[in-house]
Amino acid sequence: MNVTGILLAAGHSRRFTHGNKLLYPLQPGQPTAIVSAQHLLAALPHSLAVVRPETPDLATLLSGIGMEVLLCQPEQQEMADSLAAAVRHVLLRPAPPDAVVVALADMPFIRPETIAAVAGQLAAGAHIAAPAYQGVRGHPVGFGRHFFTELASLTGDEGARSVLRRHAKEIRLLECDDPGILKDFDTWEELQRLLPQP
C-alpha cells in the first residue's frame, strides 16, 4: 500500500516564549520539527511537510533531510487548512497515495515504529488508525483514501477532529507502549517538563 506521511509544521508558536518552537533545539543541532520529521521519514520515506513561507529556515532544514516541503498560503495556516492543503497536494500526484498518516511537528517524542504500526493498520484494511497509550488515543492518525475528500475540505484550527468525531466507529486503535504519542507542547515550560532531566 502506498502511504504518505504528512507533517503539519505551519503553526505560529504564539505561546512559546523562546522563538519558533519548531526550531527550538531539543539537543544541540536537533530542532523539534527535524526530530519529528526524521521519525516520520524513518517509517514513511515518502513524506511531506507543510510550512509557512515566513519560516524559510524551517523549510530549508526539512528539505535538507529529504522531506518534500509544501508552502501554505496565509489562509491555509490553521491546522485544518494546512492539512487540507497537503491532502489536495498529494491528490494531484500522478499516483496518489492509498492512505496518509498525519503527524504534528511539535510531537518529537513519537517513536518511528509507532508510526510504522499505524501505517501497517491501514495496509491491513483499517479506514482510520491511531495509536493509544494506556487507553488514551494519541498521534499520529492515519486515514484511508475514502476520507481524502473530507480532509481536503477542512478549515479552521481543529485539525481532523471533526472527521474523527463523525467516523468514531471506524477508528482502529492500536495499543502501544509509546507515551510519546500523547506528548506535545505549546509553551517553553511544557517542553521542559517533557525533556529528560539531567
Task: Describe the protein's architecture and organization.
- By secondary structure, the chain is an alpha/beta fold.
- The chain has a single domain, classed as Alpha-Beta Complex (Spore Coat Polysaccharide Biosynthesis Protein SpsA, Chain A), CATH 3.90.550.10.
- It is built from seven helices and ten strands.
- The radius of gyration is 16 Å and the shape is globular.
- The mean pLDDT is 91.
Percent helix: 25-40%
Number of helices: 7
SS elements, strand count: 10
Structural class: alpha/beta
Order of helices and strands: EEEHEHEHEHEEEHHEH
Regions with little confidence, pLDDT below 50 for 5+ residues: none
Which architecture per CATH?
A: Alpha-Beta Complex
Q: What is the mean pLDDT?
A: 91
Largest sheet: 8 strands, mixed
What do we call the CATH homologous superfamily?
Spore Coat Polysaccharide Biosynthesis Protein SpsA, Chain A
Strand content: 15-25%
For the termini, the CA-CA separation is: 42 Å
Brief characterization of the structure:
The chain is of the alpha/beta class.
Outline the fold blueprint.
Blueprint: E1 3-9, E2 25-27, E3 30-31, H1 32-43, E4 47-51, H2 56-64, E5 68-71, H3 79-91, E6 99-104, H4 112-123, E7 128-133, E8 136-137, E9 141-144, H5 148-152, H6 161-166, E10 171-175, H7 188-194
Parallel strand pairs: 1-4, 1-6, 4-5, 7-10
Antiparallel strand pairs: 2-3, 6-9, 7-8, 7-9
